[in-house]
Amino acid sequence: MAATAYSAALLGGARLPAVPRSGLLPRRSSVCPLRVQAAPRLSLLRVKAASEDTSASGDELIEELKAKWDAIEDKPTVLLYGGGAIVALWLTSVVVGAINSVPLLPKILELVGLGYTGWFVYRYLLFKESRKELATDIESLKKKITGTE
């Protein structure tokens, strides 16, 4: 009743025609189309657990890793490189988090990346001659890395 008086006051005294409540929503059917009990059961699919022992493959993996570790002659260098990689990963995460916290910088960097991608596509991928040039550049880089040049 209060809502009707409020709407009448908003409309300058004009009253809206009364609409029966049953006309606003569609009727509910007594039958639900997605009944769980009526779903067919798939009895054709049967899953069996594997009978092989997975701990044997785990033991083999540990033995293989021990053999590889024992074959390394310069263990401190490997530990130094591994520790350096972990520190570099952590530092990269910190830098990216700091850049991401600056309000406009991530969006600007997205625009720079989008612009560079567009330039790269135009320069190297759009025309047949430039694709051949890119392929020869990649092949020469591969030869430099592998040392066959």
UniProtKB/TrEMBL annotation:
InterPro entries found in the cross-reference section: CAAD_dom, CURT1
Transmembrane segments: 78-102, 108-126
Example of a GO cellular component annotation carried by this entry: chloroplast thylakoid membrane
UniProt keyword annotations, A-Z: Membrane, Transmembrane, Transmembrane helix
Keyword Transmembrane helix: yes
Matching Pfam families: CAAD (PF14159)
Subcellular location field: Membrane
Membrane topology of this protein: Multi-pass membrane protein
Keyword Zinc: no
Domain Cyanobacterial aminoacyl-tRNA synthetase CAAD: 64-147
PANTHER family linked: PROTEIN CURVATURE THYLAKOID 1A, CHLOROPLASTIC (PTHR33222:SF4), PTHR33222
Protein name: Cyanobacterial aminoacyl-tRNA synthetase CAAD domain-containing protein
Species in which this protein is naturally found: Eleusine coracana subsp. coracana
Protein's gene: ga17245
